[in-house]
């Protein structure tokens, strides 16, 4: 378990919402609703008077944090040697492609693929044009 929290490994620190911001208040509402019961329809419902874009952004970041924690706990068991291919069982193989280094779909080991994926998602989450953090602003992709 000690290696899970080693910053040199694939585990990333949680993304946090700045206290006092609208997103922080939405995050608190989301957390409270998740602990309120098992009515999933009510849990994901947009609170009255809130922006749908902010509500979705809060849940995207929370989902990233949860997936990152799960991946961090299992990453020591999936190494370059033990997981040479990123696959979804025998039927599916995932290949990496991006705009920089991997111009064509490329076979990567599962750890390398996951590292690239988590870096890419983190870059998107940190992009103010996609996930603005200031109140009253909307993302370029949504305006």
UniProtKB/TrEMBL annotation:
- Cited Pfam families: Mob1_phocein (PF03637)
| GO function terms (MF aspect) | kinase activity
* Protein name per its UniProtKB record: MOB3C kinase
Show the PANTHER family listed in the entry.
Answer: MPS ONE BINDER KINASE ACTIVATOR-LIKE MOB
Repressor recorded as keyword: no
Keywords, ordered alphabetically: Kinase, Metal-binding, Transferase, Zinc
Name the positions where Zn(2+) binds: 78, 83
Gene from which the chain derives: Mob3c
């Amino acid at each position: 378990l000690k290696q899970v929290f080693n910053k040199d490994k694939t585990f990333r620190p949680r993304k946090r919402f700045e206290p006092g911001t609208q997103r922080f208040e939405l995050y608190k509402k989301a957390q409270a609703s998740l602990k309120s019961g098992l009515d999933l329809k009510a849990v994901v419902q947009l609170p009255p008077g809130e922006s749908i874009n902010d509500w979705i952004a809060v849940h995207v970041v929370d989902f990233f944090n949860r997936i990152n924690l799960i991946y961090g706990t299992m990453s020591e068991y999936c190494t370059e040697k033990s997981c040479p291919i990123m696959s979804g069982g025998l039927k599916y193989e995932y290949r990496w492609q991006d705009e920089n280094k991997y111009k064509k779909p490329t076979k990567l080991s599962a750890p390398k693929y996951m590292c690239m994926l988590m870096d890419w998602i983190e870059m998107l989450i940190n992009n103010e044009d996609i996930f603005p953090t200031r109140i009253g602003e909307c993302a370029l992709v949504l305006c």
